[in-house]
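Re: folding output
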Amino acid sequence: MEVIRNFPDAELVNNLRSGQQMEESIRAIYKGHFDSLSWYVLNNSGSRQDAEDVFQEVVVSFIDLVQKDKFRGESSVKTFLYSLNRHTWLNELKRRGRASLREEKYERAQDREAPDTSELVADRESRAEVLRLVGELGDTCQKILVLFYYDNLSMKEILERTDYENEQVVRNKKYKCLKQLEQLILSKPYLKETLKTLLHG
């Protein structure tokens, strides 16, 4: 039986910030916090799969915040993760509520030009890591991809929020952004794979 080490908060944060003992630190977060965080999702209209997906997103977000020195240690790691977990799940419930009111067949059919990348962006398992990578594409691509995939807006609605001439120009720009994103997604798989192993192993 594999022994997963527990880290004090300070040591855990230092590991994540420096990039040392990353796999061991992620395993420690899973062991110490998955059960309590998943309980919140399961008791608020979520499934086991939802709990796993949200936990993965929370861990990736936490690592990102630590590495950008945005986690100041003003609360415990446990309290901070719980807050992230709650916020992430409530946002997902709101997103689902909006999406259920929207007819998306037409726009999804228009997405055939880049199926592989589109599936990655729409895939709930990849969502947290993809959101981080989208931020590396620049403001324009970030705005278009987030509005389309995560806010579920149509091309017409996106056009109203941007300065482009027409819907086709927006669609062409989205395609170019997806191609850039594809390379980023394929170059940084390790965090997602580590978490998938923990959650489904």
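--- second protein (sequence, then structure) ---
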Amino acid sequence: MQRPALLASFGLLAALAFAPMASASCPGDLNGDGSVDGADLAVIFGNFGIPGAPGDLNGDGILDGSDIGLFLSLWGPCAPSCTSYQSLNYVGAAVGGPGAYLPLTVLSGNVNVLPSGEPQGLVLAATFDGSVSIIQFALSSVSVFVDTSFVLFPAGGTPELAFIDGFPTTIAEMLTAFQTDLQIGLGPGDWSVAGRAILAMAALAETEPFACNLTVSLEDASPAAVAFWCKAGLASLGGGIVARAIIECPAVGTLCPEGGVASIGEFAMPCWSLSSVCVGDQFVGGQAAFDSVYSLWAGE
């Protein structure tokens, strides 16, 4: 299959866009080959007794005998996941907000993903205080309606660029505004347009349908669809990283084991891509969150 031309323009290698890794839907598959088997058992034995090592399936901080018991219960092929384009059905889905650190965000709506990988549809994001944002997916672009304001992530142009009410801004600047709004402590209804838009997008990072289609689309969708998913991913995963890192920076950065992964909602981020997010135990801002996601596509 011919790889999208856009991947080359971004300096990407499609095969390296997402290296094999354990997934939230198949946690025992430590090498990402679609099956829990002897190869994964070798990883378990190689990391036995190491705090925070890949294979700590029960999340108690160390890989020990209890993890081996859990691992053996998962033995066999993983359930089919991300095998084809599909409808992203958010009807009735509810998540705890990006990184589970923000107030409850409820997603409803349906997005159809065309064979080309291009999405079309609407998603409603609502918070506990009545703040509502609407995300519209339309032919390789995504728009977020925040009250009377309008945020556009276009397919064309540089991958880091967005527009708020027609004025250009960067996704990194939006993530910084999101960080500020989150730290001030006001309800989302009082947040900036940029912060509310990122909150709505970051909620998508909590959902398996979004993570699934993001992965698949980067591999073999049309160039236009790859442009869309790239920008949507930068905003969604970047927001999830900001939300988690502000509260628990060491777990995202400094304590992420070398060669391991950190979960951002339903998405598994390789630790190498998060190396710039934390300095000591302090989160260093929206630009670092943007860079950490973009490094996946750039293969840096």
